[in-house]
From TrEMBL:
The chain crosses the membrane at residues 9-28. It is a single-pass membrane protein. One of its GO terms (molecular function) is glycosyltransferase activity. The lineage of its organism: Eukaryota, Metazoa, Chordata, Craniata, Vertebrata. Keywords: Glycosyltransferase, Membrane, Transferase, Transmembrane, Transmembrane helix. Coiled coil: none annotated. It comes from Pampusana beccarii. It is found in: Membrane. The keyword Membrane applies. It is an enzyme of class 2 (transferase). Its EC number is 2.4.1.-. InterPro entries: Glyco_transf_92. Belongs to the glycosyltransferase 92 family. This is Glycosyltransferase family 92 protein. Its main location: membrane.
Amino acid sequence: MLCGGKKSYFAAAVCIITLTSMVTLSYLRLQRLSYLPKIIQEGSRCRGKITNSTITALKDNRTFIISPYFDDRESKVTRVIGIVHHEDVKQLHCWFCCQPDGKIYVSRAKIDVHSDRFGFPYGAADIVCLEPENCDPTHVSIHQSPHGNIDQLPRFEIKNRKAETFSVDFTVCISAMFGNYNNVLQFIQSVEMYKILGVQKVVIYKNNCSHLMEKVLKFYVEEGTVEIIPWPINSHLRVSSEWHFVQDGTHIGYYGQITALNDCIYRNMQRSKFVVLNDADEIILPLKHPDWKTMMSSLQEQNPGAGIFLFENHIFPETISTPVFNISSWNTVPGVNILQHVHREPDRKEVFNPKKMIIDPRQVVQTSVHSVLRAYGNNVNVPMDVALIYHCRVPLQGNLPRESLIRDTTLWRYNSSLITNVNKVLYQTVL
């Protein structure tokens, strides 16, 4: 016997720890082996149909593929952003076809359902597969089984395969535009404010919007500012306009917002220095700096190694207006005129104040809406005297009288440029 003859408790404890360690290491070694790619076929051609849909349902109808991304930050893997049923999806495999030798590899996937599912049966998931060592596959297929015919499986392009230099400094990710969205004036004002503050790209996961909003989006797409990602999630799942599950038979919260945000991070990982995660009615307003570039340079200098910067949300109720900047031509445009809303609700210390983020996408693995779930970099809570989120919407403290609100005209610092730029867009689209 390995531990025979040992009389003391100490020796017995050492013996038990040694045995446990040996068993654990053996188990981990076997686990890793089970995820290694295996050749299942040779001399084939990659003939599966390439899909360009934003959301693709697998045959089990419990798994939905958004997009695969190459990720070599820890090991050489394909990370597929998807949506899965948190209980029903137990096993998935990545099928890689390596050219020119035509070898087909299958890797068992690790299915990592994000922790912020908020009770819904479906949630954002990372489907992660080790790639073959001697191959840099350009496409991957996802299947429940390690057996079958690859020609019958849809193929997805693996993005981020080639390293790129940053084409922009700031990309704003907005998800998701739904509910026949028609807040045209505020949307244009937000985009023009983003541009004034240093944004070069706004990515919108669009479910639906009004005809008038379509005209505005078309203008911005042609201008090169906006990129539209079609987001027909309600064609696949019963969606909720709430963020938490309320036992109403829906499948996923807030039109799959969390999945879209994660996809947007990976989509822009190699092309944008920073990614900004906020909604169309939110603007991160710097108080000490003229724009985001100088603000972020200062914050990074003060916080070396940080990759996630969180900004306080402050409500500017659209029900409380100031009779300035009442521009007559804007009155015919549907939506809120943010320049007339410069009173914010006071902070409630006992109530959680959700934050929004500017992140270095290369330091983020998984994100939720108001915080990052997994990352390599540190978090920084940006003080309110440096910047705050101007959030113009229906009030959260609707019973407060006007005199209890805080007058904050920070937005007016940009009024001249903002009015000029908004007028240019309106005259080319709406007016």
